[in-house]
């Protein structure tokens, strides 16, 4: 029997046995509650990761308008390495997770501090930009707002106005934003992105196993915008995936890694679905992106 990418990723929905060993299996395969707590007891959550303190450039705030979401001033931010001008710089676009905003990557993750550290260590300078995505899951929604085009056209046009090099784009995101980065690379920005880095990717085997109620508008929306049926669109693209071993997305992340071609770089370490793990991943992933821009 041929196992397609879709079927292989769907294996995460397999049933669990009952009884002594079966209950343990059920907990660990997430068919029964408690895996995160068990992971903490086993020390899989990881240690706290402090905010970076490297001297960084200023984070500049701005707004723009787009017909992808008419009548709204879109908030976004730009960070440049200390002492570096925008003209001709490649760009890493940051897509935030569910419940976060365009400031989170700077205020809570310190990405501009890691940016400054990497450039000081000899990495190619690059700009960091982020924008608000609400709870959108970074795709066109039933209300008509096209969050993907807001990035691929609205934001990218603003970057070009500043003289940034939009022919050298990288994408990074976590959770909802990790999903968004991979989906955009497969669709609206297909062929226009040089590399993608995704942390704790929000990827689901099917509509029934999507726990975030507003991630997709309907089963049809999931079919049209889910990751599992478009992984072949990412073939040939340099990708870095990271996920904490105590994160509820770890199993699907590993299965996704097995399906991508060429094999992505991966980082599976102690950690859960939190800023601690994303701070731990950020310098590794930003260096990966800088090396491919």
Automatic annotation (TrEMBL):
- Work out whether the entry's keyword set contains Disulfide bond: no
One annotated GO molecular function is: hydrolase activity
Q: What is this protein called?
A: Acyl-CoA:diacylglycerol acyltransferase
UniProt xrefs under InterPro entries: AB_hydrolase_fold (IPR029058), Esterase-like (IPR000801), Mycobacterial_A85_antigen (IPR050583), TAT_signal (IPR006311)
Q: Which keywords does the record carry?
A: Acyltransferase, Hydrolase, Transferase
KW Acyltransferase (keyword) present? yes
Q: What class of enzyme is it?
A: transferase
Reactions it catalyzes: 2 alpha,alpha'-trehalose 6-mycolate = alpha,alpha'-trehalose 6,6'-bismycolate + alpha,alpha-trehalose; an acyl-CoA + a 1,2-diacyl-sn-glycerol = a triacyl-sn-glycerol + CoA
Enzyme Commission numbers on file? 2.3.1.122, 2.3.1.20
Matching entries from Gene3D superfamilies are given as:
alpha/beta hydrolase
What the record says about family reads: Belongs to the mycobacterial A85 antigen family.
């Amino acid at each position: 029997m041929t196992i397609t990418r879709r079927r292989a990723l769907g294996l995460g929905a397999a049933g669990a046995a009952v009884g002594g060993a079966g209950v343990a299996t059920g907990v660990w395969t997430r068919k029964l509650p408690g895996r995160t707590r068990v992971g903490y007891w086993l020390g899989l959550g990881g240690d706290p990761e402090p905010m970076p303190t490297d001297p960084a450039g200023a984070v500049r705030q701005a707004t723009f308008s787009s017909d992808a979401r008419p009548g709204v001033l879109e908030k976004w931010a730009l960070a440049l390495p200390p002492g570096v001008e925008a003209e001709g710089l490649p760009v890493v676009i940051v897509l935030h997770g569910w419940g976060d905003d365009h400031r989170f990557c700077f205020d809570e993750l310190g990405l501009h501090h890691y940016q400054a550290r990497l450039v000081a260590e000899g990495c190619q300078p690059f700009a960091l930009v982020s924008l608000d995505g609400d709870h959108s899951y970074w795709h066109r929604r039933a209300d008509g707002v096209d969050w993907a085009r807001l990035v691929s056209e609205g934001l990218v046009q603003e970057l070009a106005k500043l003289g940034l090099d939009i022919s050298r784009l990288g994408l990074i995101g976590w959770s909802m934003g990790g999903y968004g980065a991979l989906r955009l690379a497969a669709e609206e920005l297909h062929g226009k992105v040089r590399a993608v880095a995704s942390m704790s990717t929000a990827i689901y085997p099917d509509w029934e196993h999507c726990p975030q109620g507003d991630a997709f508008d309907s089963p049809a929306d999931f079919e049209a915008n889910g990751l599992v049926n478009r992984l072949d669109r990412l073939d040939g693209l340099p990708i870095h995936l990271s996920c904490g071993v105590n994160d509820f997305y770890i199993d699907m992340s590993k299965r996704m890694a097995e399906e991508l071609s060429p094999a992505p770089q991966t980082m599976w370490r102690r950690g859960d679905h939190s800023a601690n793990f994303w701070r731990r991943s950020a310098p590794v992933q930003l260096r990966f992106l800088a090396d491919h821009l």
